[in-house]
Write a structure and sequence with these properties.
single chain; 285 residues; alpha/beta; Rossmann fold
């Protein structure tokens, strides 16, 4: 848990969650269906038996202590684990009802539809404009490139800050601006889903507020999944929250498991598992 953050108290105002009044489960559209998902690295089982559904136009947060498999899990959704030679994903993950790991599925197309923003801002050593245009150019999306770049920067809430210096190096931006630039770069290829792995942990204390506001704006058009160690951040932005923890085996091997998955307001005010309550109140983690 973020050592600098005050514990969230059970029984707190459920209005702290991003959307206290969510549509009932039967009215939600499932983007990802996860059944029995596991991740191995060689012989090590890093994450086991995860079952949950991710809903369209929701912000879904994955929380839990370090080493519980959150990052391994989020990378299953855009098949980034495929790039690790020892990694193996088990179980079933569907995307709009289609098996995401079926042999005929093109992993490159998956990554176009499911964008990714990483923990540390990683702009290319190019101009601001060329950072945003990079993905569309690679994918052959050349028509109306100027408009596409502008739209992506506007969606990432950074257009007004950079519109007069698009040809300057992206690395000249502040850390928070660089992260929003990376979000714009991910949005430039018109994804359906945006994955965010600890997007605020490497930023100064002021920048996360803008990223959080942006996440709430983005869910109007996108499905957002975010990994975070910050309980307050999850409570502020997430509609649904999944809490993971770690089991330690006889040989000291750590395996992540999903403990609870629920609407965020209920997760933080009335968790069903004592381990969730201990984590969100700061008694462990």
């Amino acid at each position: 848990m973020d050592a600098t953050a005050a514990p969230i108290r059970i029984g707190a105002d459920p209005g702290m969650a991003a959307s206290p009044a969510l549509p009932p489960p039967e009215a939600r559209e499932i983007v990802f269906g996860v059944r029995g998902a596991s991740v191995h690295y060689g012989t090590h089982l890093a994450l086991r038996d995860v079952d949950l559904d991710v809903y369209r136009n929701f912000v879904t947060a994955f929380i839990g202590p370090s080493g519980c498999g959150k990052s391994s899990f989020i990378r299953c959704f855009n098949r980034l684990n495929d790039l690790i030679p020892t990694a193996r994903v088990g179980g079933q993950i569907t995307y709009h009802g289609e098996d995401l790991y079926a042999p005929a599925v093109d992993a490159v197309e998956v990554r176009q539809r499911i964008g990714m923003v990483f923990q540390k801002p990683n702009p290319f050593p190019k101009s601001i404009y060329d950072n945003i245009a990079f993905g569309p150019r690679v994918l052959g999306m050349k028509g109306g490139l100027d408009e596409r770049v502008e739209q992506a920067l506007q969606r990432a809430a950074i257009w007004d800050e950079v519109k007069d210096r698009l040809k300057t190096p992206a690395l000249s931006l502040s850390g928070g601006q660089q992260q929003r630039l990376c979000i714009a770069r991910a949005l430039a290829t018109d994804p359906d889903v945006l994955l965010m792995d600890e997007p605020c942990s490497a930023l100064d204390p002021i920048a996360p507020a803008k990223i959080e506001e942006l996440m709430l704006e983005l869910r109007r058009d996108f499905t957002v999944i975010v990994v975070t160690h910050n309980m307050q951040q999850a409570a502020r932005v997430a509609d649904m929250t999944a809490f993971f923890t770690v089991e330690v085996g006889d040989e000291g091997r750590r395996t992540g498991i999903l403990i609870e998955y629920d609407e965020t307001a209920r997760m933080f005010t009335n968790p069903q598992d004592s381990r969730t309550e201990a984590y969100v109140t700061g008694r462990f983690g």
